[in-house]
Amino acid sequence: MKKFFMAVPLVLATASPLLAASDVGFDVNINVGNRPGVVIPAPPAVVVPTPRVVIEEPPVFIEPPRLGFYVGVDVPYDLFYISGRYYLWQDNHWYRAPHYRGPWNVVSYSNLPPGLRKHKLERIRYYRDDEYRVYHREHDRYRGKHFKPEKEYKKRYKEERKREKFENKHRGEGRGHGHGD
Q1: CB of 146 closer than 8 Å to CB of 132
Q2: For a disulfide at 70, which of 61, 131, 144, 147, Cβ 3.0-4.6 Å?
Q3: What is the Cα–Cα distance from 171 to 162, expressed in whole angstroms?
């Protein structure tokens, strides 16, 4: 074995002029893990654009009995109203807003209300369209649940003003009695 190791340098010494004259090279690299100083970039962040929603006037919302939540009709969007919030499906993303005009924020599927997650979008559209035909046919005689957001707001505002006037009127009647005035 000792003779082998002594022979290697002798062979290399005699072969080196031949190797130097030729363009032959020999290299061994062993890498384990990342090279020092190499930074692996993070995947790019997914930016979901704000949806373009243009609704000129308050939409009508109807509640198909099979769904248990309101769906917008006569609008070119998949628009829903559940528990005081508006939900929109657009460009493969769910959005949520406090008002039917926005501002819209992306919401994950897991954060949607259970009623909305319960049904596939195609089924929701089917029930919406089916109930809308009834609404359209019966219009003024329609007995299903429905509302128009601005009408509800105006109605609520009128009721609050009426209550405030009543309270203010009756608040003044209690003064001056039994206090020596």
Answers
A1: no
A2: 61
A3: 14
Domain count, the chain: 1
Angle, vertex CA 144, rays to CA 100 and CA 101, nearest 5: 5
Residue 144 falls inside a structural domain: yes
* Order of strands across the sheet that contains 105-107: 105-107, 93-97, 85-90, 78-82, 70-73, 60-62, 146-147
Residue 44 lies in a domain: no
Residue 45 has pLDDT above 50, yes or no: yes
26-53: burial string, b at 16+ Cβ within 10 Å, e else: eeeeeeeeeeeeeeeeeeeeeeeeebeb
* Sign of the four-CA dihedral 104, 110, 116, 122: positive
Three-state SS at 141: helix
Cα dihedral: 93, 96, 97, 102 (round 10): 0
User: The domain containing residue 141 runs over which residues?
Assistant: 60-161
Q: Is residue 29 part of a domain?
A: no
Nearest to 75 by CA among 44, 51, 98, 48: 51
Give SS3 for 97.
strand
Query: pTM for this one?
Result: 0.59
Q: Which of 116, 101, 90, 115 has the alpha carbon at shortest distance from 149?
A: 101
pLDDT at residue 178 tops 80: no
Rounded distance between C-alpha atoms, residue 22 and residue 140, angstroms: 97
- Give residues with Cβ within 8 angstroms of 143, minimum separation 6: none
